[in-house]
Amino acid sequence: MTRPHEYGHTKQLDQLGIMKYTFCIGIPSLFDWGTGDYYSNPWEVTADIYGEVQSRPHSEEFVAAGYEYLEKSKVFGPLVWSTIDW
Ligand SMILES: [Zn+2]
C-alpha cells in the first residue's frame, strides 16, 4: 500500500509533469533542502494535502506557501529554487 504522503507526491507529478516534478519537488525533497521541519517545506506540504495526511496538520501560512510553490513551479520550473529559504 502506498503511504498517503507518497500518493500526494503522485498528484503533484500529475500537475507538473515529470521534468518540473523532478526539479521542483524531487530534488529538493531528496536532498532535504530548505530549513526547519522536513514536512513543512512547501514541496512536502502539498504532498500531505493531496494525500490527505491527517497526522500532520499544517498552518494556513504553510498551506498557502505550499500552493504558491506549486503554482510557481508550473510557471517557472527550476527557477522556483530562487524562492527557497536556505
Ligand atoms: Zn515527501
Please state the overall shape, judged from the principal axes of the Cα atoms: globular
Distance between the termini: 34 Å
Average pLDDT value? 96
Q: Main β-sheet: number of strands, strand sense, barrel status?
A: none
| Strand element count | 0
Order of helices and strands: HHH
Task: Supply Rg.
Answer: 12 Å
Going by helix content, strand content and strand pairing, the class is mainly alpha
Low-confidence stretches: none
Number of DSSP helical runs? 3
Which cofactor or ligand species appear? zinc ion
- As for the number of domains, it is 1
Instruction: Report the helical percentage.
Output: 55-70%
Beta-strand residue fraction: under 5%
Please provide a written account of the structure.
This protein is mainly α and 86 residues long. It has one domain. It is built from three helices and no strands. Helix 1 (4-30) runs antiparallel to helix 2 and helix 2 packs across helix 3 (60-76). The radius of gyration is 12 Å and the shape is globular. The termini are far apart. 24% of the residues are buried. Bound molecules: zinc ion. Zinc ion (ZN) binds at residues 5, 9, 29, 44, 47.
Keywords:
binds zinc ion, single chain, mainly alpha, 3 helices
List the helices and strands and how they pair.
Elements: H1 4-30, H2 42-50, H3 60-76
Helix pairs in contact: 1-2, 2-3
The structure holds zinc ion.
Zinc ion is lined by residues 5, 9, 29, 44, 47.
